[in-house]
């Protein structure tokens, strides 16, 4: 009879593959540049380098971290800051819901999901959704941990580098560095979009988002996600019904 697969070996192989994937991914460069800018931003607002690096390790969400630093640095009330950071980070919830059923096995325990959920970011989600389906299921969760651990480590180190490079960086660098992140997410999402649901959501977002922003409608990003996502899901259901019809 064939030997049973070695779960420990599979986990190590999956984690190592995740580390290699992150180290060679374009997101490694994007995160490096982005968090150098974030470190410089923290220096400008008077936060310590330790605080900045711990913020990256614990929060691990560039837009939410920028909101946190600028809000606290300008004296915004803590409750308002917390609400703003929470609303910014809730965008990661659908990614967690979509990825975990793909990554976990029937033997995965709830506590084993704490680490991959913390590592969740758009960069991790894109790489995991691109590669995880092609590897054995028992390696998928360690793979996600490897990707997340490597990219998070890059982000923490880049935060410290940016903090000390602040005096040597032009003021426009921080804004340019933060702009790289959404552009990389857009191109990666477009590259990985295969289903009608994914393509429709992306296309509708690119149309609805600017229209609401130029119309000065409040919560434009929130409404873009709700309206665009609902319409894309509706198109997906219509397509499924047509394909299922005799």
Explain the overall architecture.
There is one protein chain. The termini are far apart. Residues 1-7 have low confidence and may be disordered. The chain has helices at residues 7-24, 26-44, 49-59, 62-73, 78-89, 93-103, 114-119, 122-131, 137-165, 171-192, 196-214, 220-244. Helix 2 (26-44) packs across helix 3, helix 4 runs antiparallel to helix 5 and helix 11 runs antiparallel to helix 12. It is built from 12 helices and no strands. Helices cover 79% and strands 0% of the residues. It has 246 residues and is mainly α.
Short synopsis of the structure:
This protein is mostly helical and 246 residues long. 79% of the residues lie in helices and 0% in strands.
Per-chain topology:
Elements: H1 7-24, H2 26-44, H3 49-59, H4 62-73, H5 78-89, H6 93-103, H7 114-119, H8 122-131, H9 137-165, H10 171-192, H11 196-214, H12 220-244
Helix pairs in contact: 1-9, 2-3, 2-4, 2-9, 2-10, 3-9, 4-5, 6-8, 8-9, 8-10, 11-12
| Structural class label | mainly alpha
Radius of gyration, in Å, reads 20 Å
Major sheet attributes = none
Overall form: globular
**Structure summary, number of beta strands:** 0
Number of helices: 12
Mean pLDDT: 84
Features:
single chain, 246 residues, mainly alpha
